[in-house]
Specification:
It is a single chain. By secondary structure, this protein is of the alpha+beta class. The protein has a single domain, classed as Mth169, Chain: A (2-Layer Sandwich), CATH 3.30.1280.10. The chain contains two helices and three strands, in the order E-H-E-H-E. It has a three-stranded antiparallel β-sheet, covered by helices on one side. The protein is elongated and about 45 Å long.
Length: about 80
């Protein structure tokens, strides 16, 4: 089973990388950019065949390692 985890900073958490991306885009002439936030995507392949069990396992992975839940949110997409 394949799954995708999307990890983003919580609202209100400063994002210096996002600010750098925004500045660079504006410097390249993309003046319509009013904000940028940086995150990460993790694609996983699991032996699990039950989607609910896979989601629970991935949530445990996120809580223990993949995401800093103090400052980050995560979403889990089961891809099949």
């Amino acid at each position: 089973m394949k799954a995708r985890v999307i990890i983003t900073l919580k609202s209100g958490v400063l994002d210096p990388q996002g600010q750098a991306i925004e500045g660079a885009l504006k410097g390249l002439g993309f003046g319509g950019v009013e904000g940028a936030r940086q995150g990460k995507v993790i694609d996983l392949t699991l032996a699990e065949t039950d989607a609910d069990a896979a989601r629970a396992t991935i949530a445990a992975m996120c809580d223990k390692l993949l995401a800093n839940t103090v400052i980050e949110n995560y979403t889990i997409d089961i891809l099949g």
